[in-house]
């Protein structure tokens, strides 16, 4: 089959890690007889420099038409002036909103070979397997913003329909796993969280086979570190999900390891590692490409229904995490290219 993939490398390490993931797609194409037609487009700071806009119309149009979109990362010090009129991150938010990819899936597992990198004791990491479902197109990120002379506001707004669609998705995903759903909110303080909680309670009646618990976000931040193996599917609003998943990445050993899939109702979907442009290591060829390569695996599975191909990529990554080489963020010395080469070799040695 022939598939059209739009890549949005973006800024900092974004181009480095997305190039690695594209190589993996091409290797999969050779082995399984697919053609991945790659259409590279601008987003973020790179797009601002070239066009003045963080998400040029051509990039959005290509993304809409594609079979799937793979993004590196956006942002960096060059574009971070608080007075700046246009910011790289606006491009990413506009893309998520335009594609209506409201459910951001962020799976987290702890690879046994990396458990010692985690600040947590090894025994606490046994059996950790969490699927975060982060609401991605509502809340504070998209509410009205106001800046006065000496004040600023960010409105947090959710409609019941926005909550319902992402929570339903989380219930459905829980059904395919261990049938346990943790909904995270701040219902003791926030009105949006009270709407969130009552919506989850209402929907729970339709999923009697799924055990539901509610957890306030502050204690959840603690419980993720003290009892991470208790959790199966965790659903939460946009900002809480952003913060909790970076925290949870520490369990796995590095932010550079975690992939994500952003899905909506239609065929549009966006795949990106959860990390940012990592300006502190950009341009050095040392970024960990694993989070982006695993995002490409999610792309194969969710957008192209290529399950065997997705599993082949995951198996190859698993092999490299077991045997090395490892990039610096996970205690090794390998550069991005060495890790990529090892993944490609593991893929070739796999007989499917
Ligand atoms: N999806 C995105 O595009 C995205 C996500 C998060 C942050 N950002 C942007 O990235 C910029 C930097 O933000 P930040 O520093 O808070 O977060 P960051 O995720 O870029 O980096 C945090 C830390 O993790 C390390 N790290 C991240 N990815 C890595 C990788 N692949 N391999 C090895 N180490 C890695 C970095 O070196 C850094 O020490 C900001 O402009 C922010 O807005 C973009
Ligand atoms: C870059 C930023 C807008 C983004 C977010 O907050 O959603 C990032 O942190 C992420 O987790 O994808
Ligand atoms: Mg984030």
Automatic annotation (TrEMBL):
Keywords: Amino-acid biosynthesis, Branched-chain amino acid biosynthesis, Cytoplasm, Leucine biosynthesis, Magnesium, Manganese, Metal-binding, NAD, Oxidoreductase. Its main location: cytoplasm. It holds the Pfam family Iso_dh. GO terms for molecular function: 3-isopropylmalate dehydrogenase activity; magnesium ion binding; NAD binding. Mg(2+) binds at residues 218, 242, 246. It is an enzyme of class 1 (oxidoreductase). Substrate binds at residues 96, 106, 134, 218. Residues 4-343 form the Isopropylmalate dehydrogenase-like domain. InterPro entries: IsoCit/isopropylmalate_DH_CS, IsoPropMal-DH-like_dom, Isopropylmalate_DH. It is found in: Cytoplasm. The record marks 141, 186 as: Important for catalysis. NAD(+) binds at residues 76-89, 276-288. Its cofactor is Mn(2+); Mg(2+). It catalyses: (2R,3S)-3-isopropylmalate + NAD(+) = 4-methyl-2-oxopentanoate + CO2 + NADH. Binds 1 Mg(2+) or Mn(2+) ion per subunit. One of its GO terms (cellular component) is cytosol. Pathway: Amino-acid biosynthesis; L-leucine biosynthesis; L-leucine from 3-methyl-2-oxobutanoate: step 3/4. GO terms for biological process: L-leucine biosynthetic process. NCBIfam families: leuB. Catalyzes the oxidation of 3-carboxy-2-hydroxy-4-methylpentanoate (3-isopropylmalate) to 3-carboxy-4-methyl-2-oxopentanoate. The product decarboxylates to 4-methyl-2 oxopentanoate. Belongs to the isocitrate and isopropylmalate dehydrogenases family. LeuB type 1 subfamily. Homodimer. This is 3-isopropylmalate dehydrogenase. It comes from Frateuria aurantia (strain ATCC 33424 / DSM 6220 / KCTC 2777 / LMG 1558 / NBRC 3245 / NCIMB 13370) (Acetobacter aurantius).
């Amino acid at each position: 089959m022939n598939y059209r993939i739009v890549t949005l490398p973006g800024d900092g390490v974004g181009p480095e890690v997305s190039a690695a993931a594209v190589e993996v797609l091409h290797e999969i194409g050779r082995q399984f007889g697919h053609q991945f037609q790659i259409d590279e487009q601008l987003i973020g700071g790179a797009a601002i420099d070239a066009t003045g806009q963080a998400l040029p119309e051509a990039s959005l149009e290509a993304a809409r038409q594609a079979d799937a979109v793979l993004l590196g990362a956006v942002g960096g010090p060059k574009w971070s002036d608080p007075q700046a009129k246009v910011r790289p991150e606006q491009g990413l938010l506009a893309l998520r909103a335009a594609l209506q990819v409201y459910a951001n899936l962020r799976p987290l597992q702890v690879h046994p070979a990396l458990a010692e990198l985690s600040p947590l004791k090894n025994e606490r990491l046994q059996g950790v397997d969490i699927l975060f479902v982060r609401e991605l197109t509502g809340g504070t990120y998209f509410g009205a913003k106001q800046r006065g002379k000496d004040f600023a506001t960010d409105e947090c707004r959710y409609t019941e329909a926005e909550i319902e669609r992402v929570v339903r998705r989380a219930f459905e995903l829980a059904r395919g796993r261990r049938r346990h759903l943790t909904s995270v909110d701040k219902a003791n303080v926030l009105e949006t969280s009270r709407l969130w909680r009552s919506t989850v309670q209402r929907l729970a009646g339709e999923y009697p086979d799924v055990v539901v618990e509610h957890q306030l976000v502050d204690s959840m931040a603690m419980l993720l570190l003290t009892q991470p193996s208790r959790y199966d599917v965790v659903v939460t609003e946009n900002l809480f999900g952003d913060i909790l998943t970076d925290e949870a990445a520490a369990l796995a050993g590095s932010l550079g390891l975690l992939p994500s899939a952003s899905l909506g109702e239609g065929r549009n979907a966006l795949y990106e590692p959860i990390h940012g442009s990592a300006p502190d290591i950009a341009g050095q060829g040392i970024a960990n490409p694993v989070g982006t390569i695993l995002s490409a695996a999610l792309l194969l599975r969710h957008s192209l229904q290529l399950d065997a191909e997705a599993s082949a990529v995951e198996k190859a990554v698993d092999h490299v995490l077991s045997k090395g080489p490892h990039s610096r963020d996970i205690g090794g010395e390998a550069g991005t290219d060495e890790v990529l080469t090892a993944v490609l070799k593991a893929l070739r040695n796999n007989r499917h």
